[in-house]
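Take a protein:
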Amino acid sequence: MNDFTASSQPLPNKFFSDYRSDRPFKTLLYLYQNDLRYIGLSMLFYLIKHSPEWIRPLIIANIIDIISSPSTHSLSELWFNGAFLAFSILQNTPTHYLHIRFLSTATHSMEYNLRSAITRQLQYLSIGFHQQRNSGAIQNKLLRDVEAVALLTTQIFQYLPSSILTIVIAIIITAIRAPGFLIFFVGTIPVAVTLIRYFRTPIRSRNSVFRQQMETTSAYLIEMLKLIPITRAHGAEEAEIYRTEQRLKTLKQASIKLDLINALANAASWVSLRSFNLVCLLASAWLAYTGKWGITVGDVVLLTGYFDSITGSVVQILGVLPQIGKGFEALSSIGEVLECPDVEQNKGKTPVKRLKGEFCFESVCYVYPESRNQTAIVDFSLQVKPGETIA
C-alpha cells in the first residue's frame, strides 16, 4: 500500500497564504489539493456500495406485483429480481473496503499535512504570541480541531452526496412509475429548505460558543494540573476546586444548549416529513384499493419505500449540519494560528559567532502588550560584566 501514502508530504509555504478560514469549504478543498483523486474514488465506491438502498424498494415492488398477479408474470421474473438484489448486496463488501481505503488515505494525509503546517507555524510565531496563548488551547487546535476537520470530510464527501443522490433517484423512479405522486415529494423540498435555513444560524452560533468553552476549559484544566503542587503548598485546594467546577458548569450549559438545538432540528424534520409520508401512504393505498390511476400494490410499497428513503436522507442532511458547523468552526480555530501575521522572520539574520558574556541595559523602558497605558519599567540601566552574577 505504499502507493497510497505518497501524498503525505509537508505543505509548501504557499499553504499559509492560501488558508482562508472565512471560506471554509474552499479551504477544505485546498487541504486535499494532493488527494482529490482519492476523495473522488472514495465517493464513487461509496455510491456503488450504497446502491442496494436505492434498488431494494424497486425490487420489492416488482416482486409484490409478480406474486399478486401470477397470471401476467413468469416465475423467471421473480428469480431475476431476486438475483439482481442479491448481487447488489454482495458487492457491498469489496466496494466498502475500497471506499474506506481511499477515504482513509486522503483523510490521514490531510491530518498529517495540517498538523505539520500548524507545528511549523508555531515554531515561527513570535514569543509574544505564545505568551498570550495558553498551551492547552494550542494543543486543542493540534488534536481536537484537526480531528473535527477529518470528520467534516466524511460528512461533506460521503453523507451529503449519498443523501442528495437518494432523493434524486427516488424522484426519477417515482416520475416513471407514478408521476402524480411527485407532488408529495416536491412538497418536502420547501419544508426541508425552511428547516435548514431556520436552524443553520443558531446551530452554528451554539457550535461556536461550545468550541470556545471547550478550548478555554481544556486550557484551564491543563494549567490546573501543572499547578497542583503549588496549590497544595498554599492550601488552596478548595478554592481551586470551586473555580474548576464553575468552568465545568459553564461548559455543561453550552453542551446542553447545543444538544437541545440539534434535538429540536432533528425532531422538527422527522415530524414534518413523516406527516408527508403518512399522507402519501393513505393516498396511494386508496388509489390502489379503488383501482384509480393504475396504482398497484407494488406501487404502494414503492412509493412509501422511497418516501422513507427521502425522509431518511433529509433527516440525515439535517443531522450532519451540526457536524459540518463544528468542522467549519474548527477550520476557523486553526486559522487563528495559520493566519496569524505575528511571525518572526529569521532568514537572512546574521548568526551569532561569539558570546562575550556582558550585558548592558541603558535607559530601558518596557510596556506589557495588554496594558499599553501603563509603563512597567522606566529608565532602567544595568551593566553585568563577564563572570559577574547579579541576583
